[in-house]
Input
Amino acid sequence: MTPQVQAIDAALLAAHEHHDARDAQAFGFWLYILSDLILFSSLFATFAVQMRSFAGGPTGKDLFDLRYVAVETLLLLLSSASYGLAMLAVQQGRSARVMRWLGVTFLLGLGFILMEVHEFYGLVLAGHGPDRSGFISAYFTLVGTHGTHVTFGLIWMAAMLFQVGFKGLSKPVAGRLLRLSVFWHFLDIVWIGVFSVVYLLGVM
Amino acid sequence: MAEAHNTIAGEHQGSLLGYSIGFVLSAILTAIPFALVINGTAPREATLLGIFAAAVVQILVHLHYFLHLDRSSAQRWNLMTLLFTLMVMTIFIGGSLWIMLDLHSRMMG
Output
């Protein structure tokens, strides 16, 4: 083998390994998402078991305002779509546009979280805190866990805004943006379960 | 085409049209169950069925248009692990409800 061929082989091998590493990162993150789904399953199962345990306290009909929840849902759905537009800009290598859509996504997600915190605050203030009944405990645990995930997603997104700003769309940064997109869309999917089971069934 | 394999979600497949279709379908599939419950005129069983059907279809819409999951060979393991997780979830949630509702009816009934 000539040194030249050896060099090409080494370069191909390195490229292949690098590629494998990125594949492994993407797949590993997907496995984390699936394990998180099982965490949410346990909370959904708990809520389903507790959803009629009112202990003489308020029911979903007394507590939930579906119009308010519809606005929250719209914010999260819009943020999912705007993150999609950020990913399109990543493919095109336009970092300014990526930052703009990430910023829009961040603000929509922040709006969702502020609405949720406002809702929780109102419930606790009215004496309907998590200690009131099994139903409200399960409600706070399930919806609060989802909200905590969204909050961590926002922190991650803020970090990515800085990374895109300072490092540009390098391969590692693009990989992180892709994994955050999966996390963000996954949280929107979990929210479909939350509004269907908790809010809609709760008010029926 | 090195990028073609480099995805959980197949970023190369995203398009403006795809995200637009996904958004519009999701908005409709959210509006239907909310309208059913807010109106409250439909029979209870029909409303329940409507909520669950809209949720399942919307989840499929998100998986297809936002996460770009499909049956291509590059996605095989993503799909297989998802199906396995769905099986675990079904046993988990279904089993919990079965046991607890049975217990409830034996103790209260």
